[in-house]
């Protein structure tokens, strides 16, 4: 029984699944109802089962695949399982079905309650981001690090939100305030879609700050780990160290998140 994972094997399997999805990208009509979306979802799941899950089960029978119903529990804390996979079959699925770029295949390995490995593959750009605990983060074989910009007004920030909450007004109000704060301080503010990819972009310096005000742990895990291994700082939106189950997230090069919070306070004091 294998004790250590073969990174290259896993990268190849993830890329294989992503390239499989790419073959049919934009070949099917745009969905016009929920029946269309359910059919596309079933197709994604079938491909995932055949191209990735079954092959990883053969290679690593000791690593478990939690059932779907554990998704809510996984948001708050790691599962009480020694080793298990977390896979986002298509992160940015809305973009995929709407014929837009900006979708990836993500895979994360949790070992003893901590992320040990993650990979994000962007089939359109042929970019593979991955990290292994204590070994740094990489994109297409090259080590990545966050940007070294100093001034917020020269930086690009992104904000995100979960798609599952539709009846919590206070969350949307908090989101709106955060977006306003970002717009007031940063050169540009964007919302791109695939959560983990945007976090990996912080790790490689393409994005300078990622901010999200609601709980979305499993969507963050793959990219959050890559950003962390690259050297980014992982905080909550009030500047505290992020912990698994934190209900919000802010990721940026070291010092940038605190600089943003200090600048907000100064700016608000001037307005009052």
Any overview of this molecule?
The structure is a single chain. The protein has 272 residues and is of the alpha+beta class. The chain has two domains: 7-142, Fructose-1,6-Bisphosphatase, Chain A, domain 1; 152-271, D-Maltodextrin-Binding Protein, domain 2, CATH 3.40.190. It is built from eight helices and eleven strands. It has helices at residues 7-24, 34-59, 71-76, 93-97, 169-185, 195-204, 217-230, 256-271; strands at residues 83-91, 104-111, 114-122, 127-132, 137-139, 142-143, 156-160, 188-190, 209-212, 233-235, 249-252. It has a six-stranded antiparallel β-sheet, with helices on both faces. It has a five-stranded mixed β-sheet with strand order 8-7-9-11-10, with helices on both faces. The termini are far apart. This is Myo-inositol-1(Or 4)-monophosphatase. Keywords: Hydrolase. It is an enzyme of class 3 (hydrolase).
SSE topology sketch:
Blueprint: H1 7-24, H2 34-59, H3 71-76, E1 83-91, H4 93-97, E2 104-111, E3 114-122, E4 127-132, E5 137-139, E6 142-143, E7 156-160, H5 169-185, E8 188-190, H6 195-204, E9 209-212, H7 217-230, E10 233-235, E11 249-252, H8 256-271
Parallel strand pairs: 7-8, 7-9
Antiparallel strand pairs: 1-2, 2-3, 3-4, 4-5, 5-6, 9-11, 10-11
Helix pairs in contact: 1-2, 6-7
Major sheet: size, sense and barrel closure?
6 strands, antiparallel
Helix and strand string, N-terminal first?
HHHEHEEEEEEHEHEHEEH
What order do the strands of the largest sheet run in, or round the barrel if closed? 1-2-3-4-5-6
CATH fourth-tier homologous superfamily of the largest domain: Fructose-1,6-Bisphosphatase, subunit A, domain 1
What is the correct CATH architecture of the largest domain?
Answer: 2-Layer Sandwich
The rough form would be described as globular
Radius of gyration: 19 Å
Q: Which stretches of 5+ consecutive residues score pLDDT under 50?
A: none
- The portion of residues forming beta strands comes to 15-25%
* Terminal-residue CA separation: 64 Å
CATH third-level topology of the largest domain: Fructose-1,6-Bisphosphatase, Chain A, domain 1
Total count of domains: 2
Decide which structural class fits the backbone. Answer: alpha+beta
């Amino acid at each position: 029984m294998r004790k250590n994972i073969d990174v290259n094997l896993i990268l190849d399997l993830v890329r294989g699944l992503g390239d499989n999805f790419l073959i049919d990208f934009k070949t099917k009509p745009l969905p016009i109802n929920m029946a269309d979306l359910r059919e596309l979802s079933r197709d994604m799941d079938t491909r995932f089962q055949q191209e990735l899950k079954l092959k990883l089960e053969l290679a690593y029978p000791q690593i478990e695949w939690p059932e779907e119903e554990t998704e809510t529990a996984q948001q708050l804390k790691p599962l009480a399982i020694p080793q298990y996979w977390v896979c986002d079959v298509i992160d940015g699925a809305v973009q995929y079905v709407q014929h837009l770029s900006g979708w990836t295949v993500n895979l994360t390995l949790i070992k003893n309650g901590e992320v040990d490995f993650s990979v994000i593959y962007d089939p359109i750009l042929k970019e593979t981001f991955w990290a292994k605990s204590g070994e740094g983060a990489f994109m297409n074989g090259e080590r990545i690090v966050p940007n070294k910009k100093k001034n917020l007004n020269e930086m690009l920030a992104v904000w995100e939100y979960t798609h599952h909450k539709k009846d919590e007004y206070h969350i949307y109000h908090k989101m709106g305030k955060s977006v306003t704060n970002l717009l007031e301080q940063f050169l540009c503010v964007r919302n791109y879609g695939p959560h983990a990819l945007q976090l990996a972009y912080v790790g490689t310096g393409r994005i300078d700050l990622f901010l999200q005000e609601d709980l979305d742990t499993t969507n963050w895990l793959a990219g959050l780990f890559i950003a962390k291994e690259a050297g980014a700082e992982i905080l909550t939106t009030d500047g505290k160290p992020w912990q698994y189950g934190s209900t919000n997230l802010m990721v940026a090069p070291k010092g940038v998140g605190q600089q943003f919070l200090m600048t907000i306070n100064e700016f608000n004091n001037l307005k009052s």
